[in-house]
Amino acid sequence: MNRPASLLDNALNLESTQKGRVVLVEDCVETSGAFVLHHLIKRFLSSPNLSSSDSIVLFVAFAQPFSHYDRVLRKMGCNLAAQRETKRLLFFDMLMLECPDDGVEGGLIALYGNIQKAVEVNSSNKNITLMIDDISLLEVAANGSTKDVLNFMHYCHTLTTQFGCTIITVLHEDIYSSGDGFTFPLQMEYLADITIKTEPLITGLAADVHGQLTILNKGMIDGFGSSKGKIHNFHYKIKENNVDYFYPGSRS
Question: How many CB atoms lie within 10 A of CB 210?
């Protein structure tokens, strides 16, 4: 019997041996995508199917302190403090990061240098995952410089080819819904191999459903060995310790 999260795992194709993917989580005020990030943290640190003893997660936090994630993940059965103690979780607390007006690029390069060094030191691990909990706040720290943030992400993207890292980040799509700023989400979607959108139900509020997920996996491989995009749509309901994923109409 599949566990409740199997729909999400299958849509992300996490059982694949393919490395070096970029996963973008796009959310909005009505439906936060934080639960997806929580699920993936636990997945990469705890899943025996991914040889978790050989996994390491580099977590760059702009939105919440370590204590927040530790509290949430403990409810899900994953002890982040213990993972950090064994150095399988490297936590970068960037809540106070503020790049000077005349040194935005230098500040982000310094951050990338720290990430790159951590990856190189742990390059013997089979699975290295870089998580950035809020790229929109990274842009705030960079004084609104979209160009510098995109350059930073392109630098990080080189780690996917050089070391086979997986990159996961969250972007608040609705804050870019007007004007020229919407080009930033489009550029991030272009960079991503997998895009996860958390959205409200089209039909409006429902007591037993919190929202819907739309997942575009550009890296799916068809029967002829060529890349083929695939779209998944299903609903979710957030519980205290986990999330239920299900297709519309599949629950009694």
Answer: 21
